[in-house]
Amino acid sequence: MIKLIECPRDAMQGRTEFIDTAIKAAYINQLLQVGFDTIDFGSFVSPKAIPQMRDTAEVLSLLDLYSSKSKLLAIIANERGAEDALQFEEIDYLGFPLSVSETFQQRNTNKSIRQALETVESIHNLCEVNGKTLVTYLSMGFGNPYGDPYSPELVADFVEKLEEMGIKIISFADTIGSADSDLIENLYEVNARAFPNIEFGLHLHSNPKDLQPKIEAALKAGCRRFDGAIYGFGGCPMAKDELVGNVATESLISILDKNGFETGIDRNELSEAMKLSRVVFN
User: Fold this and answer.
1) Backbone angles phi, psi at 86, to 5 degrees
2) Contact 209/192 with Cβ under 8 angstroms?
3) DSSP secondary-structure letter at 235?
4) Are 42 and 27 in contact (CB under 8 A)?
5) Which domains does the chain show, CATH number per domain?
6) pLDDT-derived band of residue 81, with 50, 70 and 90 as boundaries?
7) Are strands 199-206 and 38-44 parallel, antiparallel or unpaired?
8) Per mean pLDDT, which range of 54-63, 179-188, 235-244 is the poorest?
9) 102-109 and 113-130 are packed helices; what angle lies between their axes, rounded to 10 degrees?
10) Residue 169's pLDDT band (boundaries 50, 70, 90)?
11) Where exactly are the transmembrane stretches of this chain (predicted)?
């Protein structure tokens, strides 16, 4: 079974106009009916850094989880954020952005890679004690625009360090839309073979016209965990291309359908969520 992770948090967080808390909750409640494996619903980070997410705890209090099988994931950037998120039993996963680019790690979390790895280990231990699971996102996982070192072998070194800590889920993140299908297939095949106990996912930012070969390359290499956002809302401003955004969930589902993969998605509920997204992101 394919695991689809819907990312309203990623779609919302970069918007300058604050989205009303009740509207966020209504949208996420609709997403909870669609059949996604996980909803990346919010983050516990500094409101100065991401003002759009300052109401994550309040949004959580408005969610109806009893009629949904979807799990909840919250992004955190340090131990304090993890401790805040761990207060809520409704949250199943914590997500931490670890970059293979030193420059981006400093920009994203004000930490060096060495410090960030220490933070990952600390947060993973907190998750273990509290019955949660840490999802580690390897951002700039397919290259970076800074001239920092990059290679699939470098990524494998990061994965090895994470495996030694006991990390079970790693998602390769193409932060700037630089991956091609050959690199995606190579990266997954190498790591899935070397680290069979880790579940690897894919968080792409991509131009829509390039999406199908990328997803099919990941499927061929054995990837069964994919992140998306309805209509592709959100993305990374550093991509410097307005077409490079999150993977549109509806496009991802269409590609999976064409390749014969079962998603478990309720199409009627998805249609309602797509209608509602137009109101949220108007």
Assistant:
1) -70, -10
2) no
3) B
4) no
5) 3-280 (3.20.20.70)
6) very high
7) unpaired
8) 235-244
9) 60
10) very high
11) none
